[in-house]
Automatic annotation (TrEMBL):
It comes from the Bacteria. Residues 771-811 have a biased composition (Gly residues). Signal peptide: none annotated. This is Membrane peptidoglycan carboxypeptidase. InterPro entries: Beta-lactam/transpept-like, Glyco_trans_51, Glycosyltr_51/Transpeptidase, Lysozyme-like_dom_sf, PASTA_dom, PBP_transglycosylase, PCN-bd_Tpept. It comes from Sediminihabitans luteus. One of its GO terms (biological process) is peptidoglycan biosynthetic process. Residues 668-684 have a biased composition (Low complexity). Transmembrane segments: none annotated.
Amino acid sequence: MASSTNIDVVEPRRRRRFFDYPRSRVKGFRRWLPSWRVLLGTFLAGCALVAGVVIAAYNTTAVPDSAQAYTKQEASTVYFADGTEMGRIGTTDRTIVPYGELPAFVGDAVVASEDATFWTNSGVDPKGLARAVYENGKRIISGSGGNAKGGSTITQQYAERYYMNNEGSDTKSLTGKFREAILAIKITKSQEKKDILGNYLNTIYFGRGAYGIEAASQAYFAKPAKELTQPEAALLVALIPSPNSWQPKEGEDNSYATALWNRVMDRMVSEGYLSEADRKAATLPETIPFEPANTYGGTDGYLMQLVEKELTATGRFGEDGSELQIGGYDIHTTIDPAMQKQAVKTAQSLPEDADPNVRVSLVSIDPKTGELKSLYGGADAVKDAFNNSTQAKAQGGSTFKPFTLIAALESGKTLTDRYDGNDDLLIPGWDKDPTKKVTNFAGENLGMIDLVQATTQSVNTVYAALNVEIGPEKTADVGHRLGIKDDIGSNAGNVLGTDHVSAVELANAYATIDNGGVYNKWHIVSSVDKNDTLFYKTSQKPERVVEAEVINAATYAMTHVISDPHGSGATAQALNRPVAGKTGSSNENRSAWFAAFVPQLTTVVGISQSKEDGKTEASLTPFGEWKQRGLSMTGGSWPATAWTDYMQAVLKGQPVEDFPDYTMPRATWTPTPTATATQEPTQEAPEEPEEPEFVQVPGNLANMPKDAAIQILQQAGLVPSVTEEYSDTVNQGVVIRVQSTASKVPAGSTVGLVVSKGPDPAEQAPDPDDGGNGNGNGNGDGNGDGGGNGDGNGDGGGNGDGGDGGDGGGQTPPPTQSPQPTAGQNG
């Protein structure tokens, strides 16, 4: 029997790849698990790459001459929008003193506080770096953001502040920290430790405009650095991390500065530089009072403060903005110098008899961008650093009513909705006390009126009922969306502006209305350059917060505050261009506002008054022509006059722009019932009333002869109504303005024409007692001021948005005292 033999054929063994991935000799999921060769190869390649980067960085990093650190530190220059200089942040107050002339404990205090391993490290502290890597790793994983954390040695701080910052290099990212470490190592190799410490002490910023230990010693203790005591040196060293924030300030709580001083003293003990006995005997040294340099003097000082605050908040210029003092930046602002000059002129035009404690605020914002164009913060930022337009806050009064109007329109209300405009109404839900009534100024009873008239005449009873109906929380929500960052209560009285607001935030909110419901946060900085290279640019993210159709309706109503002869802001008709806005006067007449806008510019003017202590609010003391006429100060008085004067100046030569077209909704027509001649009911359906035909209001009638304008209106199916007033700029018989801001109105509507009578022959304001019967309506709560002309007919459009009546020349003056304020008497 034959046997068979099985012969195994062995294939030649193939050479294994070094980088065998995916793995060829295994199957399943193990095929995708890297082998030790892959891991080793990847590790070695990574090490080689890192080593190459480190070597390249080390070889290409040059150490500047240490003397350059002194010369590169420069004040930053701030510019107006046209490129002219506004001022400088920082002064180069520095005197170089050799390290050997300083007491040893000065250097000891710095080493103990900032870098205990300074005398032995290589320029970096591995433990500190490891700690920084760990903290930054946690920051990245958690997504908390922010800048890379420290762990920097004295040499690294020196490298960062005086080499890298002056080059405009990034010093906050991990990449920047890496380059900083390389530079610190090379500095350590090229300079003696005592020289590094001496250079550090001679260039570090200590606050109060002082650079270097010598200038700091003079600024805080009025003595040379060589005469410093140990406690004094410790206090200066304690300020190094954040000198602007931590320095002791006269009359303020300095507990934080004290804690930092104690920390430095304790570290000196633990590091062996100070004995326990000397530590116990030491007390916190007193510093001399700080008198700021006049860099911030005058009215521009308030702008400089805003610039520094805005840039510090970005985190790009040091934690406390101290790098602005030495970085040599070119800072470009949004401030128009011509507008700013006019703002100062206007704000300082208060009559001589005004109370010295009256504060004036004036803010202009470009609604399209949020750019601050002008701001008046006060007369001198050095003498009084409190900014009237950003820090001072007063009750908003009736300037908050548009917030309620917008909320109502969003809730489905229309401008034709009618409410009871009578006085002394009980409105359920208005107050916890169910017997408390809402009043109009001087007890005005207006009957059933629509929301346009209620806005025009600032009728409290209508707006109180409207706010209760829609919910006051909606008023607060609209105010916040438009730009009010301060708290707005959800009580029903918020419609009357019981909450406090700053001028700049009120202007921001009205700018959002002006911009069709698109919000842009106000800002003063446009961009920052470093060595002719863009370093920082303000980025704006426009946000639609209210729908355009709602804003257009609200704006239409707000134009009547100015265009209507009885509007509380009628003074602004003198601008001869479309204006929308609102007056506001607070309870007890403690503030008065005029917040208004043309399509290209939003401006707010406000006045408030404090008592002699400068802090407690006081009622505005009447001044100027309003005092002479026995009137209170209201939004329609000096604020509206100042607003108009300012806007006439800054808009001179600018094109006249119109607001978006808006057509009033058709009111609900209810047929009037009539008696019939038959006893039997008719079988015919009643005839539906005809709805009115709407026609276009002709434009461009201003500066046209009266007869021609009348003919054009009549041809359009409208009824012209002519009133006359004196004018120094428009010839007699020529139309000054048209008293209608609607684009379409029902056929047969009356359209007012204001025609010039030529210059006033008397060349002075008429005596109020000779002006006829006076036709001013003082509607509104708090104090109101109409813009009527006292010309014989006494058309005083005295519509109060506060507490007193119309300020129309020729009308019988209202009482000098406002009615006792109640829960409905904020204008």
